[in-house]
Amino acid sequence: MQGRNRFPAGLVLESHKQFPLDLPIVELPAPPCVVLALDQGSGREAEPVVANGDRVAFGSTVARPGAAGSAALHATISGRVVAIETREAATPSGHSTCIVIESDGEDRRDPALRTHPDYPSLDPDQLVVALRAAGIVGLGGAAFPTATKLEAARARGARKLVLNGAECEPWICCDDALLREQAADVLLGAHVLMQALAADSCVVAIEDDKPHAIEAMRASVAAAGATGITVQVLPAIYPQGAERQLVTAVTGDEVPSRGWPAEVGVTCQNVATAAAIARWVLTGEPCLTRVVTVTGSGVARPCNVRARIGTPLAALVEAAGGYRDTPLQLIAGGNMTGRALPSDGIGLAKAMNCVLVATRADLEPRISAFERPCIRCGDCATVCPAGLLPQQLHRAARADDESGLRGLGIWDCIDCGLCDYVCPSQIPLAYRFRSAQSVLREREAAARKATAARERHERRGRRLEQAALAEQHAFDAARRRALGNDTAARPDAPDGTS
Amino acid sequence: MSAAAIVVACLVAALFALTIGAGLGWAAARTRDRTDELVARIDALLPQTQCGQCLYPGCRPYATAIARGEADIDRCPPGGEATIRAIALLLDRAPRPVDPSYGVTKEAVVAWIDEDRCIGCARCLPPCPVDAIVGAPRFMHTVIRDQCTGCELCIPACPVDCIELRPLAASSPTPLLGSA
Questions:
Q1: Which of A52, A84, A453 is facing B130, going by the closest CB pair?
Q2: Assigned CATH topology for domain A18-319
Q3: Considering the entire predicted model, what is its pTM?
Q4: Does domain A365-498 have CATH number 1.10.1060?
Q5: Interface check B50 vs A, CB under 8 A
Q6: Residue A342 exposure: Cα atoms within 13 Å on the Cβ side
Q7: How far apart are CA A399 and CA A401, in angstroms?
């Protein structure tokens, strides 16, 4: 069953990965200034632990995990914090609180950083704590804290690790480049992750359009004589790299709706996450750099770059030879699931696997001025990798039919964008579903808040009632005592009311 | 009297009792007071701000009044049109706009206490319908942001006017540290 695509549908998309892969990964020098968004792409902000004016070193912690889903953040250059303010960022809301650090040019390393050759002696709990402190997050594009994911997987007893090297987006090739050049690091990261999970097997899943990466990974596994780690080759079909679809392709099991892959005994991590963990073991550096593809028809020399988190995107574009032609849109991520960016002053985020400088041609056919009515051709349903009926969902979304949306599986939409890619009427379906999901989520939150308010109000009512009752009792008791005292003071007086 | 006659008499009496029991049971089920259920369903649609703008002391009393036909469905400004539409659907009535004499629908807000001006009088604590204000006499008070329903009942209670309403979205949970 090796490599058989078993998630429904999907589509083979035209690949644009060749140019960046002709060049080795470019190491970008330390920038003079970094902009570290407290929300690195997971949707939740970390809590800053530095103040304006503080001096920080390369690798010092500048923010600790706050709301669930946020991760620790570290200074990626040495220097001084010059601002902590709300700025534009690559987040769903378009902005995030950012810590801006100006370099002192020394690139001083935090003396507290130390390597972890002793990781095999740590137990899984200690490893999870260490990975959380190191700010390791999913580098595949979700920036979800790896520690949280590992905890969830362990709580559900998942014993199988899947390393996601599928990388199905047509423009992105940073994982491919990483696997070619640093397969040994990925392998080391896999060992650490397996230990943190007490996992018994690990599958490195790579699409078959990356023969060099597959070869490098296989050679590395063979050289290390690693047991329990296998390389699985999957067909290059979009969206093979989506977590649920990948789990189905690798194990044949379907992840339950709104559930974790751990519920079918698997946990997924990106290969770049594994490499970041290896860097933490070997150099002691927390998550400070990442490999990012800078590509698109709008840059002169598309390439893969290893840059520090927070590096302004303009510096990345510069490394790729600067702008060319007439770029239409700067996008974080690929052309299918990426997010449009307002400017190139934004700092590189952990979630950014690609900076796409897109011209109009790059974004065809998903960019159009005219949305025409649905002609019910059903093409969207034939490509949907989640097995949904996008045209029915679209009808329900437009009618704001909540039960219809739920019944048709709105929560199983992974926002891959294939439905509007094939839509002959150019309806922005994925966008509509994303909005519908956020509206539903908002309503669920409001309902939860209302229930909590109702309960608090009822508890308060009961408390006031009890307090009034207690007061009445106390009054009655005092009155009885007073009457009793009266009779005691005048022993000759007649008893009570008689 | 023969034994058979006694048995027959008992059976007849038992049958009579059963018939009457079943009849009464059916009638009870048929004419059961369903107001409580209806109240709970209406209450579930109300926003639970417990603000009293409908002139009832909380959401449940208003739901009870609607269920009994004592109040119209257009008295809930915090719920706005969406709530009225939902209740209208439940009660199979025509939706209508919020009656402006009970207030106007505003964006979601939470109360915020200016701690520099708070004198610690504790007068805002009793009006809060959801116990969302923490404080004690001569101590600083603060609003638990997640629990506040934005009912505005604490505003008139404050003798120094140090409570203000802030939009739910914009009031940042953590102040920005030393922002330039």
A1: A453
A2: Rossmann fold (3.40.50)
A3: 0.80
A4: yes
A5: yes
A6: 11
A7: 5
